[in-house]
């Protein structure tokens, strides 16, 4: 049973790793680099924080 | 303002920007912090008994608890103000400066990646020990642990931390069940603390043994500061982060005390200090197959929860470095559908796998602890600078920690003691890591920093610091 579980683990690892690689490729070819890297630190704070004590 | 963009991946993007998703609450913050740490109760803390005896393990439980309470209080104050992914990295960037921030981010990535590696090795070894089958190795279980959890992190932070909440809670409840199953209110039936810890063997190496025990006492709480990495994904950072972090610390202090009491009352310190599975062994020694199996499963779940949280945190720290161009900005990509730092998760995946296959548990743990203590030392200096540059009343704080500067001084002193303890056990690794951080700092200062957009990296809308 344990050896079988070991093979199942290898199988699951391979399938999920391939899925992530596929999704990565799909996303990178669908969207522009500017959009994917458009996240900016502190955007919410810039809107909501007034710092008037 | 909001332009919905439909694509083949069926996603909605607000405007032309995509950012991490704000979906987490205090329970998720608790699950992240306690999830990373709780594995330390199932293995790791007990090696402090080997260094200084059972009583030394208890003394460091409380003293290191003081160190981490200081960490949690200081972290809660600063991060409730600097609510950004990267946690202590973003704090260092705004309060100390870019070179410190770069180093802190590397401390974070090393601490969490090495802890993830240790968790995966522990999980694989635990299954192999349980199976007892000749020819069965831990490699497949290590690979499955790292890849499945990376996939979970890739798919979204909410599900990742929901899973962490459930498995962490099960592991925690198993400690409580064990504690009440062995009649903690009576000695002699199952627990034999008065026979196993006597004035003659309580501190077999004297007080130097207590100092040496600090190195592994860190395991009781290592990683609770990881809650701050969720800062950009919690709905209300100023409320959720202090609540989640402080609740996590209280939870862990209780778990650590229960764990020590049960284990020290069931195993002699000579065995307790070398076993890899103190709680699982306590379950076996209780004589109940139910408890034995429960603690076996809880050991696996605690390792899973820890590795899961570590992948989350290491990826956020790496992502933040990319976003500020401290590393190539390619790493700062956010998945348009799952809203996760998917490239950082994928980049760190093979690194964790490689270390898990070639490094041994002791080396991985030592690198993790060293990076963690370097980070705590920074935090003690950071809070002093933070209070000096932006005194109370100058900016809005979600939480203000009491007794300043006492926690910072206590934290700094205890970090120095821990460095000395690590030097006693792993002096060459300590020197090697210090040299590594020195060289990488030179690279950053003389080469990489020219790529950084200097004005963009300081994002908090704060007033100018006092004295400028």
Question: What labels would you give this structure?
Answer:
heterodimer, A: about 55 residues, mainly alpha, 3 helices, about 75% helix, about 0% strand, elongated, B: about 475 residues, Amino acid/polyamine transporter I, 17 helices, disordered N terminus, membrane (chain A), transmembrane helix (chain A), transmembrane (chain A)
Please outline what is shown here.
Chain A: The chain crosses the membrane at residues 7-25. Chain A has 53 residues and is mainly alpha-helical. Chain A is built from 3 helices and no strands.
Topology:
The complex is a heterodimer of chains A (53) and B (468).
Chain A: H1 2-30, H2 33-36, H3 43-48
Chain B: H1 26-37, H2 39-42, H3 47-52, H4 54-79, H5 88-95, H6 98-131, H7 139-155, H8 157-181, H9 193-196, H10 206-217, H11 237-264, H12 269-272, H13 278-285, H14 289-323, H15 342-358, H16 361-389, H17 406-446
Structure notes:
- The complex is a heterodimer of chains A (53) and B (468).
- Chain A is built from three helices and no strands.
- The termini of chain A are far apart.
- Chain A has one domain (2-48).
- The radius of gyration of chain A is 21 Å and the shape is elongated.
- With 53 residues, chain A is mainly α.
- Chain A has helices at residues 2-30, 33-36, 43-48.
- Chain B is globular and about 65 Å long.
- Chain B is built from 17 helices and no strands.
- Chain B has 468 residues and is mostly helical.
- Chain B has a single domain, classed as Up-down Bundle (Amino acid/polyamine transporter I).
- At the A-B interface, helix 1, helix 2 and helix 3 of A face helix 7, helix 14 and helix 15 of B.
